[in-house]
Amino acid sequence: MVNEVPLYKPENVIGDEVIEGIREVLASGWLTLGPKTRAFEEEFSGAHATEHGVAVNSCTSALYACLRALGVGEEDTVVVPAMTFSATANVVRLLGGEVVLCDVTSNGNMDPDSLRRLLETYDVTAVIPVHLYGLPADMQAITKLAEQHEAAVVEDCAHAPGATIEGKPVGSWGDAGCYSFYATKNVTTGEGGMVVTNDQQLAERIRKLRNHHQTKSPDEKRDNWGYDVDGLGFNFRMSEFQAAMGLSQLERLDEMNESRRQVAQRYRNAIEGIEGLYWYGDESNTEHVFHLFVVQVGDGYPLTRNELYDRLTERNIVSGVHYPPISELTYYDGVGGEYAIATELYNRIISIPMYPKMSERDQQRVIETLHVTER
Ligand SMILES: Cc1ncc(COP(=O)(O)O)c(C=O)c1O
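# pyridoxal-5'-phosphate complex -> structure
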């Protein structure tokens, strides 16, 4: 059997440099919410053109804490794109709010025309655009519409650290941006997340939510034990080990994203020569960071999406579908909003292996498998 070509390869982007940071944490004796976390927050928010960063244990916690800090609760309606991972919608329902789905364009991102209709129909408290696959959503249009309807904007940047629109990083366009450092993401700490924002009060509320709503940080408590809680909070903390790893990952982010772009360029060149296969992601003035490379299977291709998936699997190449639209998930049966295009895309999309430093040999194997001359 030929070797497997995986969908992701985190080991390609994690070097020995991580070990030194972890050693420092062990030697310091400060294992969670300490100097490494603060440094990671500062550097990550700085790299994303925002003043405040709050590191947490996942992007789900980041989104949840953001919405909660913005006051979202049972009376509120939040718009999320139909094509995203379940977490983007779940956080709204976890807070008791109503999820309304926004349809997407052919590249999978929120369609501003659909958003306009929804904002005119529902009383919307917040909108969560997702920069799907690493491609920035149309933030100029989305923030303008949200402002007209007095809705907050929380960007789900789980796929997109380092992505920009006209040079301005995603995460800095809305009221806040939420990142994931899950194992397969462009920046990984195994598990982890971050909120970035220019709103100091919002950042302070999220800091409290992350640490049991204690009135003092661990630093302040060291100087004076006095302890109080003035609300209900969680344990959403990031450990110092994760923060140390995040710092070293951040140093390599540009290099890793550039490597992803090179892999993407080779795929794009190949796909142009294959009838019936398409790629949508070429938006002007945006810098795509290719968390995933998603191909669309058109009518002119000899195989259906599922047949292509089987063909890749037979050749030991891992692929996936990102994502079944939220409206397809059992728990969201009957959800409101618009999702016709997302439903159509669902039958056409397939994610093929994408990771920094992918060997040309492995990539060639994927490309050859996409070239289908007969059924
Ligand atoms: C678009 C999107 N949002 C949110 C999340 C949740 O991230 P986490 O696993 O860090 O909670 C993910 C995870 O894959 C995601 O893809």
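# post-check
The pocket of pyridoxal-5'-phosphate is lined by residues 58-60, 84-85, 87-88, 130, 156, 158-159, 180, 182, 193 (CB under 6 Å).
The two ends are 23 Å apart (CA to CA).
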